[in-house]
């Protein structure tokens, strides 16, 4: 495939229109599966949006503190849906407020509204970053898109917030800190972006982020009571114990910890190896910042670095990878050989789709707190993600870097910050 053909495929409006159009029946069918699976002659199987709706229902019933107790959550699952699945609630209290609003609606309606709105926001952010190369980004991350649409996860919302921050950061807007602060609902994915603000000495942006976080925490405390915080910390400790004992589905995870742990590495050693990977990822972000790379490539590095921070990282979090791809897709298409493009596409599909497709062949069964069993499946998304990052970096090194002044942290070029501008 020659360069012009590659560009034609990566910018095909037909492709992205097909993705959007096909998402509509997927959302409709998923809404039925959440609300009334018997209409599709299926049994109820709990997935992510069920966890959101159940947590919100418990909070609306005055049991907000109990959402952070796994035994109480499993009991609520059984009472509300008639089945159980291993989905402890570990989101911070501000996220619990969001689920309360969602739980005020029937689950099928709440899911359809939430996933449609968050997906549209994500697409709008991707469009601003990728410009006409949006179709290429969607095709490269199609497994994550399908997974998130099906399960109702909040990763479209999180990535839309992260992308809004990056767009504001690249345009030197102090209010970029507001979407960064709103990432308090999933703070472990905000580390790379917070470090980017620190490296750039964007003090006004960091102030906006801090004020947003403080306001969010204050509202959650007023609404749920001060006791919600000890409950939350207890839930985090319990989840950490579950993670070290391997009860989470490691094959769905993208972290280095999950990879090493699934190979039989003791939990403490796997945590240590993951910590090394986290430090290296953040150091690489700092090195990239001090380099002469275009700002959009630095922003893409922040997206990737954030994915390597938490040991509790899932395949649906790879919506952040979509942001990174949106920022560099034009360069990848231009500078990669045909073989490299195929290899990178396959690696992307492996990283974003391994857990999804592997799980599709697993026996779906209910599990409760009284009969948990450690996960025995390999977690192989992290190696593919690492190979994808390294391979993409090699291609991007061929791109001619634009000169950036020594004090670029204070004077990032606005028009050259975004791709194809």
From TrEMBL:
It is found in: Cell membrane. Residues 402-421 are annotated as: Disordered. It comes from the Bacteria. The chain crosses the membrane at residues 14-36, 103-126, 155-171, 178-200, 206-234, 269-289, 341-358, 378-396. One of its GO terms (cellular component) is plasma membrane. It is a multi-pass membrane protein. GO terms for molecular function: hexosyltransferase activity. Its main location: membrane. It holds the Pfam family GT87. Keywords: Cell membrane, Membrane, Transferase, Transmembrane, Transmembrane helix. Residues 404-414 have a biased composition (Basic and acidic residues). Belongs to the glycosyltransferase 87 family. This is DUF2029 domain-containing protein. It comes from Lampropedia hyalina DSM 16112. The lineage of its organism: Bacteria, Pseudomonadati, Pseudomonadota, Betaproteobacteria, Burkholderiales.
